[in-house]
Structures are given as structure tokens and as C-alpha cells.
């Protein structure tokens, strides 16, 4: 073998391994520096900027896998924020990053982001409510506690507890204030204080009891306006031509007592609601359908006809067809007369206790019980006694 051949052989012996090593290193670097591996390493170090940076260079299958991982992390961030394990700023920074491109079309990510924003605002409202509560501005505190979102499990329960506390404290303050005014015999002011509170908490029994107490102090007699819901069903049945059926027609009956005049009448504003109550009552509707049957209509046909012609409401149909007649019939109860009252009787058509037309009555200032009527003075005999009326304070 010549020296030249030996040299070539030695060179190849050295070069080939080097080339193979370089090829292997190159292949490794291509694999190591590939978008897929870059993204995987970025996930391991929680370098989500790099994940987003290389996301667009991934193949479809890998891109879908990365989206799933990012959504899972988004869910974790969402849960951690709601459970106060993460700050709002850190959570939204992640969403602002990944939703620019990788999760731009993800409904789940958008939903998680919106819920984080809702809870963030909810907790701002809660903090504001606590400030108001500590300042004893209870109604304002309640307003902001009410804004706390139902999806905020941590704070919704606290908000409800604080609302109850604020309500209790506010009502106690109102009653204390009313008692101070009662002691000063400033009954009108005391009434207004309690009425304002009842506008906010209309079902509170302690406020209602206090209002009744004030009413009994303000009105030792029967002067004022009294009201009740009275069933004029028999009268309306006769007007509609269905006498003998049980008709329900709860209109508002009003009694007004001045110094010497009594005025009884049916509230015109209550006629339409009474018609609506009647058409919601099964027995009343059976009576109306019986009239339709007399004219050859089935229940279905009657409903269809009323729906087509009057827009679907029997109350509207009856108001249109019989409203004037019903109003005229109820005007029979519009009755004004003089009266005189002692501790037990309201004498009608009189300025003194000198006739036989009277009510037996009882009152505690807030309710007026007309236990019976004796006499022939119309229209008192039309009513069924006893009747309990409530004082109308506003």
C-alpha cells in the first residue's frame, strides 16, 4: 500500500466518526430545538410566553394538545383565584397572554376569564359593603352585599350573613328612633320613619307592629281611610247572567270617615285586578264556560275565540264587554252619609246616637272590625258581616 493510500485511509478513519458525531449532534439539536420540544420545556418551567411564542409553529395535533394544556391551566388559575390562592393580577396576566393567540377562540377560556372578572368586581362590592357596615350605613351596606355574585361561593355566604346583620341593626335603629318620637308625641314623624323602613322591608313583622302601635296612638277614633278586599262574586254573577255559580270577584272596598261624614265605595282601580283574579279562579271560569256552552261553544272554542278577538285574555274580554255594567253595579256601593260614633256603635244617617241604623264595631287603631249592621239604610244590608278593614296610612 502506498503512502498516499495510507494517508487517505487515515483521514477517512478520522473524518467518518467526526461526521457521524456531527450528524448525531445536528439531529439532536434539531430535535431539542424543535418547536414541540421548546414548548414542552416551557411548560415544565411555566414559561407560558415561550409556549405562546412557539404555538403558531406547531403542527395541528400538537397545537391541539397545547391548547388543552393551556385550558387546564386556565381552569386551575380560575379556581385558585376564586379560592383566594392567587392574586387577581397574576390570574388575568395569564389569560391576557394565552388568549391573544393560542386560546383566542376558546369558549372555556373566555368563560373562565369572565367569571374571574365577575368575582373580582363582586369582591370589590363586598369590600365596599363592609366599609359601609362598619360606618353603620346599613342600607348602603345591604345594597352592596346584594351585588355579591352567586358564583362567588366564598363571599356569597358571608354577604348573606352580613345582610341579615345589617337588616337587624337597621330595623333596631328605626324602632329606637320611632320610640324617641313617640315619647315626644311626634306621631306623624314616627309614622314616616317606620313607613320608610317598610318600603325597604315590607314583610318585617316588628316594623308592622310598630306602625300599628303608632296608628293606635294617632287615631283613638275611627277617622281616616279603611280598606279591605271584599268578594262581590254574587253581584257580578248576576250581572254576567250566571247566578247560582260561585264567582270570585275580590274588589277593594273603601270606607272613609271624616269628622262627621262616612263615604263607602268600591275602588275603580281594583275592578280590572278583580276580573283577572276571577278568570284565574277555576270555579269562576267554569261558570263563564257554561254561558259559552249555552251559545254552542266548547271550552276550547271559547278560549280560541277570546284569544283571536281580544288578544288571549278573558279579563280583557270581560272588561271590554261588561266593564261598564260591572262598574255601574259596583257603584251601588258608593254611599255617603253622616255618621256618629260612640265606643261601640257607628250610627249612620245621624249626627248623634238617635237612630237604629248602626254598625257594631271594634278598633285598635290599625284595624276596624264592622261586626254587624242593624237597620235599613242602603246599601249596608248588601254586605255580609263581619268585615275587617285595615287602616290605609298612605
Q: Tags for this entry?
A:
394 residues, alpha+beta, Lipocalin, 8 strands
Rounded mean pLDDT is 82
* DSSP summary, beta strand count: 8
Helix content: 55-70%
Query: What share of the residues does DSSP label as strand, in percent?
Result: 5-15%
User: Main β-sheet, in a few words?
Assistant: 8 strands, antiparallel, barrel
Our measurement of the CA-to-CA distance between the termini, rounded to an integer number of angstroms, reads: 127 Å
For the record, what CATH class of the domain at 220-279 and 325-391 applies?
A: Mainly Beta
Q: How are the strands of the biggest sheet laid out side by side?
A: 1-2-3-4-5-6-7-8
Q: Enter the CATH topology name of the domain at 220-279 and 325-391.
A: Lipocalin
CATH architectural type of the domain at 220-279 and 325-391: Beta Barrel
* Global structural class: alpha+beta
Q: Looking at the structure, what is the overall shape?
A: elongated
Uncertain stretches: 18-33
Computed over alpha carbons, the radius of gyration is 41 Å
The total count of helices amounts to 15
State the order of secondary-structure elements, H for helix, E for strand. Answer: HHHHHHHHHHEHEEHHHHEEEEE
Topology:
Blueprint: H1 3-32, H2 35-44, H3 48-55, H4 60-82, H5 88-98, H6 107-134, H7 138-145, H8 153-183, H9 187-200, H10 205-218, E1 224-231, H11 233-240, E2 250-257, E3 261-266, H12 271-279, H13 282-294, H14 299-310, H15 314-330, E4 335-341, E5 345-348, E6 358-363, E7 367-374, E8 387-391
Antiparallel strand pairs: 1-2, 1-8, 2-3, 3-4, 4-5, 5-6, 6-7, 7-8
Helix pairs in contact: 2-3, 4-5, 4-6, 5-6, 6-7, 6-8, 7-8, 8-9, 8-10, 9-10, 11-15, 12-15
Amino acid at each position: 500500500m502506498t503512502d498516499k493510500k495510507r494517508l487517505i485511509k487515515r483521514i477517512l478513519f478520522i473524518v467518518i466518526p467526526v461526521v457521524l458525531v456531527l450528524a448525531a449532534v445536528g439531529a439532536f439539536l434539531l430535535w431539542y430545538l424543535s418547536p414541540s420540544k421548546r414548548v414542552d420545556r416551557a411548560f415544565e418551567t411555566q414559561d407560558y410566553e415561550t409556549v405562546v411564542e412557539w404555538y403558531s409553529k406547531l403542527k395541528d395535533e400538537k397545537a391541539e394538545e397545547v391548547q388543552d394544556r393551556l385550558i387546564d391551566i386556565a381552569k386551575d388559575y380560575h379556581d385558585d383565584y376564586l379560592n383566594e390562592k392567587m392574586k387577581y393580577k397574576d390570574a388575568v396576566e395569564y389569560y391576557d397572554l394565552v388568549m391573544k393567540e393560542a386560546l383566542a377562540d376558546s369558549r372555556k377560556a373566555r368563560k373562565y376569564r369572565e367569571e374571574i372578572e365577575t368575582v373580582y368586581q363582586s369582591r370589590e362590592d363586598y369590600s365596599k359593603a363592609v366599609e359601609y357596615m362598619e360606618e353603620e350605613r346599613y342600607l348602603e351596606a345591604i345594597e352592596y352585599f346584594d351585588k355579591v355574585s352567586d358564583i362567588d361561593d366564598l363571599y356569597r355566604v358571608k354577604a348573606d350573613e352580613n345582610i341579615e346583620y345589617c337588616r337587624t341593626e337597621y330595623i333596631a335603629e328605626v324602632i329606637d328612633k320611632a320610640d324617641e318620637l313617640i315619647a315626644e308625641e311626634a306621631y306623624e314623624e314616627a309614622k314616616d320613619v317606620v313607613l320608610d323602613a317598610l318600603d325597604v322591608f315590607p314583610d318585617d313583622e316588628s316594623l308592622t307592629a310598630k306602625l300599628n302601635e303608632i296608628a293606635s296612638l294617632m287615631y283613638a277614633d275611627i277617622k281616616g281611610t279603611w280598606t279591605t278586599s271584599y268578594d262581590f262574586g254574587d253581584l257580578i254573577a248576576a250581572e254576567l247572567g250566571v247566578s247560582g255559580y260561585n264567582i270570585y270577584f275580590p274588589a277593594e272596598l273603601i270606607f272613609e270617615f271624616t269628622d262627621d261624614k262616612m263615604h263607602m265605595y268600591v275602588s275603580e282601580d281594583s275592578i280590572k285586578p278583580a276580573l283577572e283574579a276571577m278568570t284565574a279562579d277555576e270555579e269562576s271560569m267554569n261558570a263563564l264556560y257554561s254561558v259559552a256552552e249555552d251559545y254552542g261553544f266548547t271550552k276550547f272554542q271559547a278560549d280560541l275565540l277570546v284569544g283571536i278577538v281580544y288578544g288571549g285574555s278573558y279579563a280583557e274580554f270581560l272588561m271590554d264587554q261588561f266593564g261598564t255594567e260591572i262598574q255601574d253595579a259596583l257603584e251601588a256601593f258608593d254611599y255617603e252619609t253622616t255618621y256618629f260614633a260612640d265606643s261601640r256603635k257607628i250610627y249612620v244617617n245621624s249626627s248623634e246616637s238617635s237612630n237604629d241604623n248602626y254598625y257594631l264595631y271594634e278598633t285598635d287603631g290599625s284595624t276596624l272590625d264592622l261586626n254587624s249592621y242593624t237597620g235599613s239604610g242602603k246599601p249596608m244590608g248588601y254586605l255580609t258581616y263581619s268585615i275587617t278593614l285595615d287602616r290605609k296610612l298612605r
